[in-house]
Amino acid sequence: MMTKPFKRLLLTGAAGGLGKILRDRIKPWADVVVLSDIADMGEAREGEEIVQCDLADKAAVMKLMEGVEAVLHFGGISTENTFENIMQANILGTANIYEAAHKLGVKRIVFASSNHTVGFYRNTDYIDAGAVTRPDSFYGVSKCFGEQLASYYWDRTGLETVALRIGSSFPEPNDRRMMVTWLSYDDLEEALRRSLFATRVGFTILFGMSNNDVAWWDNSKAAHLGYKPKDSSSQFDAKFPDSGDYPAPNASVTYHGGAFALAEVRYKA
Amino acid sequence: MMTKPFKRLLLTGAAGGLGKILRDRIKPWADVVVLSDIADMGEAREGEEIVQCDLADKAAVMKLMEGVEAVLHFGGISTENTFENIMQANILGTANIYEAAHKLGVKRIVFASSNHTVGFYRNTDYIDAGAVTRPDSFYGVSKCFGEQLASYYWDRTGLETVALRIGSSFPEPNDRRMMVTWLSYDDLEEALRRSLFATRVGFTILFGMSNNDVAWWDNSKAAHLGYKPKDSSSQFDAKFPDSGDYPAPNASVTYHGGAFALAEVRYKA
Amino acid sequence: MMTKPFKRLLLTGAAGGLGKILRDRIKPWADVVVLSDIADMGEAREGEEIVQCDLADKAAVMKLMEGVEAVLHFGGISTENTFENIMQANILGTANIYEAAHKLGVKRIVFASSNHTVGFYRNTDYIDAGAVTRPDSFYGVSKCFGEQLASYYWDRTGLETVALRIGSSFPEPNDRRMMVTWLSYDDLEEALRRSLFATRVGFTILFGMSNNDVAWWDNSKAAHLGYKPKDSSSQFDAKFPDSGDYPAPNASVTYHGGAFALAEVRYKA
Amino acid sequence: MMTKPFKRLLLTGAAGGLGKILRDRIKPWADVVVLSDIADMGEAREGEEIVQCDLADKAAVMKLMEGVEAVLHFGGISTENTFENIMQANILGTANIYEAAHKLGVKRIVFASSNHTVGFYRNTDYIDAGAVTRPDSFYGVSKCFGEQLASYYWDRTGLETVALRIGSSFPEPNDRRMMVTWLSYDDLEEALRRSLFATRVGFTILFGMSNNDVAWWDNSKAAHLGYKPKDSSSQFDAKFPDSGDYPAPNASVTYHGGAFALAEVRYKA
Amino acid sequence: MMTKPFKRLLLTGAAGGLGKILRDRIKPWADVVVLSDIADMGEAREGEEIVQCDLADKAAVMKLMEGVEAVLHFGGISTENTFENIMQANILGTANIYEAAHKLGVKRIVFASSNHTVGFYRNTDYIDAGAVTRPDSFYGVSKCFGEQLASYYWDRTGLETVALRIGSSFPEPNDRRMMVTWLSYDDLEEALRRSLFATRVGFTILFGMSNNDVAWWDNSKAAHLGYKPKDSSSQFDAKFPDSGDYPAPNASVTYHGGAFALAEVRYKA
Amino acid sequence: MMTKPFKRLLLTGAAGGLGKILRDRIKPWADVVVLSDIADMGEAREGEEIVQCDLADKAAVMKLMEGVEAVLHFGGISTENTFENIMQANILGTANIYEAAHKLGVKRIVFASSNHTVGFYRNTDYIDAGAVTRPDSFYGVSKCFGEQLASYYWDRTGLETVALRIGSSFPEPNDRRMMVTWLSYDDLEEALRRSLFATRVGFTILFGMSNNDVAWWDNSKAAHLGYKPKDSSSQFDAKFPDSGDYPAPNASVTYHGGAFALAEVRYKA
């Protein structure tokens, strides 16, 4: 029998949209997959441990991470919300994860960052990981925070991070913008695999997108990961036929961040 | 029956070399294709309207463009000539097209620009759309002018342009330089399709080349168009066998602009 | 009598080290200077209003900022501390300032950021405001957060910020590193003046340093502010005579962030 | 007696605003200064020749330039106008100057270009001569044309040009924008002197501004000219006192091109 | 019968590891392949000439190169050694080759350079041919020397060079680092073919690697060669299964130069 | 009495042109200045030791450097010569210096490099230390070698170097090119002082020029040295009056390297 790469691998946010998708896909990577979420996740299956945990609770996070070798950090709030809620879940939660990881000797975290860190670039801008961030929401700001914190821990303590700026990871694109930002589940899995098993990553930013025809993001600064997406949103071209309606009826195509970057949908606290 | 993207689409220069190639290929994009040229174009076929028109005639251009939703601007002189002729056909003609487009509310123009805007780069230079232009002829200067005018109309009025810097669009490459600059007719059509139907383009420069082995131009600044050429000049490799004759017998390979950039062929006015 | 530029100008952190220095210097800029701090500031003098206020208290901040036209945001913790303390004072405090400013129509904030946003660059690196941040402490991460939040408010709401990345603002340099990072009080005042009164700043990052011989930071991306420092640390050259001791006895000269970036001084929570 | 550098030096546009200023200042540079304009210039003084000439008249330009060794090309329309007028004066006129210069062996032209070639950059953009042009007017487009033509003649024929992108050359700044773009007459003269007498210039773009506190333009790509402005608009600071009115009452400060770039002042043909 | 591109083509270092691989592969390119080495190479086969020659012997090199049209310069020491040995074989040897080539009118040399010219970049750095060199050994320094000498001969005399920075050219990758640096023999041959027969190369640097998943080097500055590798180390993925051992057991993956860049293996003279 | 920074400081090439100039100027920096040259240097004065030494003699160099704390390496051939001579004096000589420095624990070397490392750039090119080298002579290639060797020793062993690319260090400029490249003796001394006493330099390249009006080189990548030249060649403007002779009578102004880069003066071996 083949040895699995990890003994214990933690997935936070396991009850979330992507968490559910990943639950089975990551099993081959660890003897035990630890699944955590603030929500109930039901029964543990074979090879799983389930821990209901509020990431804003520092002591609980320390306990959660005992014996863990690597973390897929998908926990937190994944859309716009009040600043206070975002701060507890995404800022304090992530700080607790990193401090525990450092104290317990975890060597690598894959952090689920977001395109909303650069959501205010326009669709005619083609950027790479060296572009200054332009977040489009409190949510986006919190993801910038997570990246900065990860950079700090790498420079200071040697704890490595791949920050995966996820585009739109759904079964298929639902609007024209997602034709650009789409990340298939298979490619998401491959991005995580590359991020976990590359020999040395330091602090690396990887844009999470499939091999779509249109691209806003250049992954050459992450060429050392060897991530090669296999899917393309072009298989869904027929859903969005050619049209001379300028600009697109869904104006969200103006910015990388889509609707997040439109003034009228700003969060009303 | 499927609705076509445009009601009226104008192709200028329809009697020219590329105009003739495009005439049938663009029909699926509009209920009525308006074909204009200073030369006679014979009878209109179904779904066409034919207008003989000198683009230097401002009033005629205004009339030509009534009801038009988008323009493929291929009109003008397509090779070197006296400055005076170039000025009338390419500078004044293009100015008339843009002013009419603005006044009539046309939203997008695909402008047939040329590699001769950058013809004085050398074949060891690899440039993108941000490189300063280095025209190699009055013709090349007039194409720079068209691009600048398009930039102005975009910044000022919101009229969008894709400037397609066409390499060498012929049935097949005729010399070593065209192995680099070749743009197959199918890829030309695809470049136009992407330019017309991308959701938002602002002022975009796209180098018009197929997926050839050797490349002088980097289209990453137009990644938002999603143009993916399908042909390659490598299918014609056997026409140009390996040879140790340095430099190539046809010295035009020295510059991007080929023979246009050679001193001895300067236009004698 | 000359009219002052503002009716009400807010200085947060007015009881802090730089707050005390600025208290009198900013008086010519407003009819009323509002001074806030979590600490006691004694009696208000003429032309002042004093408000003791915890910036983490959202309602108190809203009240504090009523009628204010511009803010010099120096409040918060200005050195390394526990993450929890930093989060309350610098992250939540800054978020409250920006949200109140937006709601109340304040048009510009000068944010006291820090060189610790880029503290992990080495002393042989010469960077400008486009360099990716490399914070050296929780404190530095919190300043990155403030900059990102400011960027978001600018892109979203039009609220302008100058983020002043202060080097070392003291009466004179105390070690070799400060010969590089020193910002005299007069130059600090001038940097604030330029930041407040430039006609349009959007979101601008300005490195706060005097015209010292050695420089790690390039302010050309803030050339529109017209900040021209008049002092130089070279007046203190005699304090640090030439020496062949490599590296400098005070090893903090290795990193932009000085001692903050040294492993042994990491905050012990 | 000292020999003058040139026998014959041509100044076009000699009756224009700057032409009048330069008339006496350039006398030390040539035995004979040839002054041309479409307008009447009165009597020639000692060391001058006066030629009334429409630059759109090719034959007249050939005659005008006989024996001339270098040209200061200030002729044409210097503000916004109809495209047709701009084309005759600035496009055809400049083409005639260059073709005559080439045919007659003139070796260098200083071309009065303009900041309106880059007028659509914003006041927070700091650009150099490698930035893509963004003209703000037909006038600006015609200056881009002149630069492109000059680039072509240099690459093709070896005729050298310094394109001087003049900011605002007036006795003193008249609004906040001119505090940035101001070029004193002494500095203008020095820029011309450097441009004429540098040993080798190829095709060089020089931004024409004094040593003002605020700068939008970086002249490092013209460092081989050695232009060191001696004046600064800061001597006029008192005309524009500090103010918290954001943005400036004169909104033209938003763009490099000032009022030229504002939609409401677009030329009504 | 087809004419071969060259009459005489020289391969130096023909008895070395890659020399033996190339011996048959390059035969189609020349009527006579001249094979040289300091070691014995046995009998010449048809279409070969064999010359035993010490490249540090200037007169012998002149004789060796008579009638040669192009050179594949693989001679010299191909691993770390004393500086004195490296100097004789790689520095003096290469100088002799270039001087003879210049005197005899050879027009192009393909120089076997090495990734050890940039061996001190880290595996998270993605560099192109414009990156400053960072050699990791005397061997690497000698390859930098060869590139500089080639640059000099190109600028001065017009003798063209492609410097091929070979990664790891072996039958298959032997460690994780070689998964990145691997250059298959077929791709090596193709790189040489492109380098020899491109129409104009000036002084070009090409990184010699196959189309592997992970890449540290960007060949866009050599896009004019049209080199398209067909193999990929991914065919050997199973040799190196996923593992959570950070960093890789073979620490050589830290630097581009692998073990060459590790302090403990420094050459002990 | 003030302590001097070094006990023993070595100056190689002490009998050369610049060596003689520096002999007295460097005395304040060390208790004992060790002066070496292949030529006779006469009697040692107080505070000096004189060692006649061929740098190509490894054992002699080891002996020379015993007890030395820092080196000003000006030894070798300082103009064009046969490759063989250059190799012995500049390549082998420099290798011996570095190996001895490493073995003896010397911490810093200031290496007298040259503008001839970049001599084939044109006078319209403005470059910084990141520009790829383009040597113009065997001499220039040998200086590139020295820089590469220094880079290697820094990355490998921590031995620091400032490579000072000296322009033209003479009492005053002798031709137009030297108006650009001139480095006054006072500024040379200051460049050495900064290079020796900066707290940390790693491997730094500094262009050695005074504060001349025209500049070809940008020292911003060496901003951490704090070198501020005080002289300017403009004091000699009158020696080179304005002239319309294009190009300059002394054609050497075309290239950074001046006459070194002209084909007709290539070294005849």
From TrEMBL, chains A, B, C, D, E, F:
<keyword id="KW-0119">Carbohydrate metabolism</keyword>
<feature type="domain" description="NAD-dependent epimerase/dehydratase">
    <location>
        <begin position="10"/>
        <end position="170"/>
    </location>
</feature>
<keyword id="KW-0521">NADP</keyword>
<protein>
    <submittedName>
        <fullName>NAD-dependent epimerase/dehydratase family protein</fullName>
    </submittedName>
</protein>
<dbReference type="InterPro" id="IPR001509">
    <property type="entry name" value="Epimerase_deHydtase"/>
</dbReference>
<dbReference type="Pfam" id="PF01370">
    <property type="entry name" value="Epimerase"/>
</dbReference>
<dbReference type="InterPro" id="IPR036291">
    <property type="entry name" value="NAD(P)-bd_dom_sf"/>
</dbReference>
